[in-house]
Design a protein that fits this description.
1439 residues, alpha+beta, eight-stranded mixed β-sheet, seven-stranded mixed β-sheet, 39 helices, 53 strands, 35% helix, globular
Length: 1439
């Protein structure tokens, strides 16, 4: 054990007084003593000294106190009375849901070292044993303390207590500087005497495991053998220490300075019997929390501290670590395993899958059909305890859309659930085929069956499962469940044969398709050689005219993945001997390695992924030779008709990657004493069917033979043979990869690898993930171009993903502990990873209560929600980039190859789901509900609270429909549209940002419901409130999916006092009220006055007046002299109304003026087409020449023309005078003047903005009546920018100020140009010094610009009373705005509570001051400069 450096109170021994104590050590309470030696505690007392147990006069008492950090402490009192050792522990000052003492002792009868576990008769009530390593005893809560008594008597009396503390509810541990707390129980006893075993550094144990494996020839081992060998290595180390060898000397052996074999022979001797070292490790492993059958595990101690931003470009890193204790795997049986085995053996089974349903519960889906003329039967069975209902529909081949099934396919009690789905209750299964037992008890299961005739035309069943009480909905990792079914297609006339290459324009794709579909003789060997040639050609620039390098490499990857997933033939009219195949593999993998060394970024990422589809290419001849050696060694004759001989013939003539699962299946068969179910189960899990076995050129038609007398020898031999097969065929097998990498593995990675390879089936998941990721980090500098290291890196990545998928869903909030290693794992795999490195940085800045899956406070949860939102956007971007790159290509390749439609359509999705980003998404799904609940955020965020009645229409994003006119009130569901939902528009690709903040809400829409949260004070949010449109965000996809299923229905929506949105079928009164409300919001009498030009080109501050400049300028002037001195106003001047029209009327601009007038006339004069009024109306389709153009096209042309106007030379003189008078910097060069003029013309041109046109059209205004004044201000250097509404827009509370703030320019807030949320806060006007943070910023970027000038729109279209014109027109900086990546969690605003409180309070006071000065609620924009000064740049009446 490591000694603690923590200052501790010295041990003191005292003789307590008997005053106030009876013989039991209590005040008036007798504590009985059992014959077994266990004393049962009476009432718990708060006085630690009194709780020491029975104390007789003159008995000695040991007292000691340990600090637990942050004010927490544990005080221990030990007394010895009549041979009973009484240990009383009292913990105070910490929060814990269920506190456990994780403990063991030293000393006692027969003690021989290590931790001894006292017998059952003296263990406190509720004690459990963790493996054979420690006891875990629960504390009892007494007032503000947690108390535990332990009593040891007779032979159980001990010398030393060793322990750590654990909160079982949150997986929080308290230890003594990464070691145990140690307390001598007797005066004079020590914890470092002969009784104690020596602590072995964990990283030494792990590296020793690597050395042992390396020196034994790097054999392929089962996980159980790996664990056993690891334990043997630890015992070997213990023995060496027991004999007096030093830890430093052992490190020299582990690091290769001393030869392991020579050292072992010298000190242990060859074959020498070992003297027994201490029997238990000196530091027990800590148990992990269990939810379901998953252990999160304790994080490894001593992990190196890394700056996540250093991983943006991974370089060589040096580090040390101490790994956690070894943990043996715990095999877990599941209730449905028996049924899984049964269906695996059933020859009629066509498809089956086990889904994780809820924590421990599973769902088994099986598709069976006896023959092509038989009924198709789909059985769905679950062991979940709650009554559940199947919410289902059907879809076509290769599709995931929902269509309501024909009624003849409905099982009994099925009911309609909308126009695309039905619902069927699961029934209690009493049939024999549902019988299953678990732990010697029959498990009740629920079951339903779907039957289809053989001539059906269904491609799949698509469904979700809900509880009968509608409180829980279950999905497949956030997606719908999907069960494909076999079908018989209707015969059709075949079209003329088509050239499969005709659809491909690039030469690389044509080369791939041609060789696959036109070659008569074609095998894996031919494919590998062709791929090697194409990679070389791409690197040498043969295809650079067609595509970039990333496109070329991703196409080759798609091709090779189709091959590795058995979608392409592995053998056609040609046999390939193993040595020839392995040579082709070696050639291809060499070409891939060369490409990896010569590429970077996205291209290199796709090159790396190619290795997952190709075996390494080892010694292929060994495959032929070793199978014969195994048969001869075990006296298995080569007799035709036997399974072993059939497989031998296949291996001899045409080995393929199928031989790996065949070998694994035979090992499983042997391990289960000849159980055929185990054989077929392994084959089925790997996609190898009976039909495939029988279809080999050398067919395997028989069942395997069981040789009971040779079982152990055959298992050993076939594990070794499996290593040979994997060395040739398997790309990313961990043991094969580590063996091949061998001495090239850097010293710094070997300890981590030793741990991973020895704990492959460990029940504790977190340390396994961490070790694998740390190994990857150490491998990274040596990866470029190194084939063996790349295979090892991929194997480690895959192991991390597997472990995450095993544990994330079942770990609840404890899965938060997985976030760090999973983000690191993803970062290491991507070609472009900057944003994810920032995400990791923000996550690591979270408190331990978040990072470790503990018990966060509301404030901590608020911060974590912002970080999780950022991480979600980042992984969504990873997914979208992948789909964009290979989605269309993979579908086209698949069709050309003749692959089944479902495989083509799901190709890109499966790549994403099989990658490291998917594991991160699982963690988010597990932890986000808890975070939002603790943060009191709920699932809904209501931005504009109004009631609405309307027809539900689903669309993909708001921008795509802002030009629509909906004749009936419509609720718009914003999200990527699941297939099958009736939508206004179907997106070609998923949209990451669904609402940016700049869009215009379409005419006729009464509600917008979206999963994407725009800032509450963004322009679109303001206009939603102005239009009295219900605008709300839902962070749970289930309600939005439910609404999409009701597309076309009329529903009544309302908001609740708790901030949720509810809906129901409307009453007649609701519809009438909606019509009245809609009518009342129409601004029939709204008019826009067209001002005349004042004759001035510039107007100075102080001379702003009605009809000359707009409201922005006038409001600034109104505030002058009315605000406290600490609120600044920027110096300014304005180009008044009419300047643009005057410039346009000048002779040099006549042609431009005529063209603009013609285009405007076309937009204004056209009528609305009412041909499809119920759903939507395309408002502006016009003929321009021979082509149709939308209003957006015409307006874009107007903007282009406006930017080309020629400015008279005297304007510069006017501007110079105005700038000098305003104290602004005058452009110092021609280039700078051109920038200023471009910004000014850009504001003028925004008169023709799409969103302005649509907005004014809705209120019956002519957009051409707009006159654009331009307010010119100095760009205030913004450290932060804020927007204030002095009446809370979320609840219309006039007593509250509501604010949002971002880093940098406010454009990232009001326009929504930067995704994510701002920091939002509010304060009551009678308590402005105590603002409340409502949410923290989740934006990834901020916008910045050098200090110069900004030209702001100040139009007459923004002055209209009751009309929200904000954000319709542009404000443009003279210098280009740059976007920089930032970390809000590292900002002083988040880190420094007092600074945050003071700054937010000042901003709230700005709002209150301006409202008082101007006499009405205000919409205010301003900035905070780096020195803390606050400047208000504009204000307008709040609408």
């Amino acid at each position: 054990m490591r000694s603690s450096s923590r200052a501790q109170r010295p041990l003191r021994v005292v003789a307590p007084s008997r005053a106030g104590l009876n013989s039991s050590g209590t005040s008036g309470t007798i504590r009985p003593v059992l014959a077994s030696g266990l004393i049962i505690s009476g009432e718990a007392r708060r006085d630690v000294r009194v709780q020491a147990g029975a104390v007789m006069e003159g008995s000695a008492v040991v007292e000691k106190e340990f600090s637990l950090g942050k004010g927490g402490k544990i005080q221990i009192t030990v007394s010895d009375v009549d041979g009973v050792q009484s240990i009383n522990l009292v913990v105070t000052g910490i929060e814990a849901g269920r506190l456990l003492l994780h403990w063991g002792v030293e000393g006692g009868k027969g003690y021989n070292g290590g931790w001894r576990l006292p017998g059952h008769e003296v263990r406190p009530e509720g004690t459990t044993q963790y493996k054979d390593r420690a006891l875990q005893s629960p504390f009892k809560t007494v007032g503000d303390s947690m108390v535990l008594d332990i009593y040891l008597r007779d032979d159980e009396e001990s010398d030393v207590l060793n322990f750590v503390l654990k909160d079982d509810a949150t997986n929080t541990w308290w230890d003594c500087n990464a070691s145990n707390y140690t307390l001598p129980l007797k005066a004079g006893a020590t914890a470092t005497g002969k009784a104690s075993s020596v602590a072995l550094p964990k990283d030494l144990c792990d590296k020793w495991a690597w050395v042992c494996w390396d020196n034994s020839g790097r054999p392929n081992r089962s996980p159980e053998d790996s664990q056993a060998e690891y334990d043997g290595g630890v015992k070997e180390l213990q023995q060496l220490v027991y004999q007096g060898r030093s830890i430093d000397e052992l490190w020299k052996v582990a690091e290769g300075y001393l030869n392991y074999k020579e050292y072992k022979e010298k000190h242990l001797g060859p074959g020498q019997a070992k003297s027994e070292p201490p029997s238990a490790a000196s530091s027990p492993e800590k148990a992990a929390p269990k939810e379901g059958n998953v252990d999160v595990g304790q994080s490894m101690s001593g992990l190196p501290s890394r700056n996540p931003l250093d991983m943006i470009k991974v370089g060589a890193m040096e580090m040390e670590m101490v790994l956690s204790e070894d943990k043996k795997p715990v095999p877990v049986d599941k209730p449905l395993d028996f049924l899984v085995d049964r269906f695996a053996l059933d020859p009629t089974t066509k498809w089956r899958r086990v889904f994780q349903l809820h924590k421990k519960s599973q769902m088994l889906a099986v598709v069976r059909q006896e023959s092509k003329t038989s009924m198709v039967r789909v059985d769905i069975i679950t062991d979940i305890a709650d009554a559940v209902i199947l919410h289902w529909g059907i879809s076509g081949h290769g599709k995931h859309d929902w269509t309501i099934p024909p009624e003849e396919y409905w099982p009994e009690d099925t009911k309609s659930a909308g126009h695309i789905a039905v619902e069927t209750p699961f029934m209690d299964c009493e049939k024999d085929e549902c019988d299953t037992e678990f732990a010697d008890a029959k498990v009740p299961v629920q079951h339903l069956t779907l039957l289809l005739p053989p001539d059906h035309k269904i491609g799949a069943f698509t469904f979700v499962v809900r509880s009968k009480d509608n409180t829980m909905w279950f999905k497949d990792a956030g997606q719908n469940f999907y069960i494909p079914v076999p079908s018989k297609q209707q015969p059709e006339l075949e079209p003329p044969p088509k050239d499969p290459c005709a659809d491909f324009q690039d030469n690389l794709s044509r080369a791939i398709i041609e060789c696959e579909v036109k070659s008569n003789a074609w095998t894996l060997m031919h494919r590998y050689n062709k791929a090697a040639n194409l990679i070389s050609e791409a690197l040498n620039g043969h295809y650079e005219m067609d595509m970039d390098m990333a496109d070329a490499m991703s196409r080759i990857y798609v091709w090779l993945r189709y091959s590795s997933t058995r979608q392409l033939t592995w053998q056609r009219n040609y046999n390939t001997q193993p040595r020839i195949l392995s040579a082709a593999q070696a050639r291809l993998t060499g070409a891939i390695a060369d490409a990896h060394a010569r590429t970077s970024g996205d291209a290199q990422e796709w090159v790396r992924l190619m290795f997952t589809n190709v075996g390494r290419g080892g010694d292929g001849q060994k495959i032929r030779d070793e199978i014969l050696h195994i048969m001869h060694r075990n006296n298995i004759k080569e007799i035709k008709g036997y399974w072993m001989e059939q497989w031998h013939q296949k291996l001899h003539n045409n080995t393929t990657p199928d031989d790996i699962p065949i070998c694994e299946a035979y090992i499983a068969f042997l391990k289960e004493d000849g159980n055929n179910a185990a054989y077929w189960r392994v084959l089925s899990d790997n996609g190898v069917t009976r039909e495939r076995l029988e279809g080999f050129d050398r067919a395997i038609t028989n069942e395997p033979e069981y040789y009971g007398d040779k079982k152990d020898a055959l298992i050993h031999d076939f594990y070794n043979y499996l290593g040979i097969l994997k060395a040739v065929h398997s790309g990313a097998d961990l043991q094969a990869s580590a063996s091949a990498a061998g001495d090239r593995v850097p010293e710094s990675a070997r300890g981590y690898l030793g741990y991973v390879m020895s704990h492959l089936n460990d029940s504790q998941l977190l340390p396994l993930m961490e070790a694998a990721v740390e190994a990857r980090i150490e491998l990274a500098p040596g990866l470029p171009g190194n084939k063996d290291m790349l295979y090892l890196d991929l194997a480690l990545e895959e192991k991390v993903r597997q472990v995450a998928e095993q544990g994330a869903g079942a770990s609840g909030f404890g899965a938060a502990a997985f976030m760090k290693p999973l983000l690191q794992n993803l970062i290491l795999s991507l070609g472009e990873n900057e944003e994810l490195c920032y995400c990791l940085k923000t996550w690591l800045e979270m408190p331990s209560s978040i990072r470790n899956g503990g018990r966060p406070s509301k404030e901590e949860a608020l911060k974590a929600v912002a970080v999780v939102n950022r991480i979600r956007r980042a992984i969504t971007d990873v997914s979208d980039k992948c789909v964009d790159r290979i989605g269309a290509v993979s579908a086209a390749y698949g069709r050309a190859f003749g692959v089944e439609d479902w495989s083509c359509e799901l190709f890109a999705e499966e790549v994403v789901r099989g990658g490291p980003a998917f594991a991160v998404s699982l963690v988010i799904s597990s932890i986000e509900p808890t975070l939002r609940n603790v943060a009191a955020l709920g699932d809904w965020q209501v931005i504009s609270p109004h009631e609405a009645v309307g027809v539900i229409v689903a669309v993909d994003n708001l921008h795509s429909v802002q030009d629509k006119t909906y004749e009936e009130a419509t609720v718009t569901g914003e999200e990527e549209i699941p297939e099958g939902v009736v939508a206004v528009l179907t997106p070609d690709a998923p949209a990451l940002i669904l609402v940016t903040g700049e869009e215009e809400i379409p005419e006729g829409v009464v509600a917008v419901l979206t999963p994407d949260a725009p800032d509450v004070l963004s322009h679109v949010s303001v206009r939603a409130r102005n239009m009295k449109v219900l605008f709300a965000t839902c962070h749970d996809p289930t309600p939005l999916n439910d609404l999409k299923a009701m597309a076309g229905k009329v529903m009544h929506f309302s908001t609740t006092a708790s901030g949720s949105v509810t809906w129901a079928e409307p009453k007649e009164s609701d519809v009438a009220a909606q019509k009245g409300a809609t009518e009342s919001t129409k601004m029939h009498d709204l008019k826009i006055e067209v001002p005349e030009w004042s004759g001035k080109w510039t107007v100075p501050f102080g001379e702003y007046s009605n009809g000359v400049v707009g409201a922005k300028s006038k409001n600034l002037q109104l505030m002058a002299g009315k605000l406290p001195d600490w609120i600044q106003l920027p110096n300014s001047f304005t180009l008044p109304f009419g300047c643009f029209e005057e410039v346009l009327a000048m002779p040099e601009n006549k042609e431009i003026s005529t063209k603009i007038a013609d285009l405007v006339a076309q937009v204004v004069s056209k009528k609305v087409d009412h041909s499809d009024a119920l759903v939507s109306v395309d408002f502006a389709m016009f003929n321009v020449g021979d082509q149709k153009a939308t209003a957006a096209d015409l307006l874009a042309e107007c903007r282009d023309l406006a930017m080309k106007v020629k400015l008279p030379s005297f304007i510069r003189e006017e501007l110079t005078k105005a700038m000098e008078a305003a104290g602004q910097a005058v452009p110092e060069s021609e280039a700078r003047w051109l920038k200023a003029e471009e910004a000014m013309k850009g504001v003028w041109a925004s008169k023709y903005n799409d969103r302005a046109y649509y907005s004014m059209r809705k209120v019956g205004l002519n957009f051409d009546d707009v006159r654009m004044a331009v307010l010119v201000q100095r760009v205030v250097p913004a450290h932060y920018a804020f927007v204030i509404h002095t009446k809370n827009p979320s609840n219309n509370d006039e007593a509250e100020v509501f604010c949002e703030m971002v880093r940098g320019l406010g454009e990232s807030l009001v326009s929504g140009m930067v995704a994510g949320s701002a920091i939002a806060f509010k304060a009551t006007k009678d308590n402005l010094d105590n603002p409340e943070v409502l949410c923290y910023a989740s934006k990834s970027e901020a916008m910045f610009v050098p200090e110069s000038l900004i030209f702001r729109s100040d139009s007459n279209g923004e002055d209209l009373e009751g009309y929200a014109g904000a954000g319709l027109y542009e404000s443009i900086t003279m210098d280009t705005t740059v976007t920089k990546r930032i970390d809000y969690m590292d900002d002083k605003l988040v880190q420094d509570e007092s600074y945050r409180q003071e700054l937010l309070a000042r901003i709230c006071k700005v709002g209150a001051s301006i409202e008082t000065a101007l006499g009405s609620a205000q919409d205010i924009e301003g900035v905070v400069e780096p020195d803390g000064k606050i400047t208000v740049v504009q204000t307008r009446p709040q609408v």
